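Take a careful look at the sequence and tokenised backbone pasted below. I need to know what the token row says about the fold.
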Amino acid sequence: MTAYIIRRLLATIPVMVVVAIFVFLLLHLTPGDPAAVIAGDDATPEAVDGIRTKLGLDQPIHVQFGIYAANLLRGDLGTSIFSNLPVLTLVKQRLEPTLVLAASTLVMAVLLAIPMGVLAAWKARTFIDRLVMGFSVLGFAVPGFLVGYLLIYVFAIELKWLPVQGYRPLSQGIDQTARSIILPALALSMAYMALIARMTRASMLDVLSQDYIRTAKAKGVATLIVLLRHALKNAAVPIVTVIGIGLTLLISGVVITETVFNIPGLGRLTVDAILKRDYPIIQGLIILFAGAKVLVNLLIDISYVFFDPRIRY
């Protein structure tokens, strides 16, 4: 296992190198002069030259890449053009809301979707099964931002149970944070729940048709034990896989959800950077998101061993 983990970590190096090259070229693939695009239409030539010098665009491209790569190896993601703050500092300031939102979404989706999928498989071809599958189709079909606005209208405007927008940090109390994050997490988890529920149902149906499940039923083993201890455990590998895939979907979902609910997280930082054409922030966030995806894939692969002892690396 240790050797496998080391090999996987080494395999991430060329992946991150390719990502770094792409991120570096992102600035240079911009049509026209990137400095003029950032400065805007009304900028003076002196302002454009200042931005070009600040970004190092006045140097040969191989020198620019060498400086960029050296900064990445030191953990320097660059400096924001407009706020003049290090990108890493801005990320740290916005990290908590995004982590809380992602963790809440993951917990909510897993705790709700897996029981739904198990129930649908157990009651296959019944009204309950059709109800769960109908929810799954609806979860994929309805855009996340529309779900967010509907939740705001019902629970915040009409019922006045929860705040409309904003985020309360953990320093103000877990209860206040929970009240501010429950609607965004629910809106973001809809498509995620649909994905996990469908995979759980499909995997459980395959396992429930196995001979050892019929033997356990014939011996009089309780239905709950058959479903959870025998069936769900053996169906866990594809379910964990789709959970890992869904985690990568959270990155794009966070951008939309944080914008709808006015949450000052990394998603909102991404949108603001795109609108302002603050390329150092965009480049730094792409690097961080890519690294997070690689790490999630590694953790999912390692988790297979705990669910299926037959798997060995």
The mean pLDDT is 84. The chain has two domains: 2-73, 91-307. The radius of gyration is 24 Å.
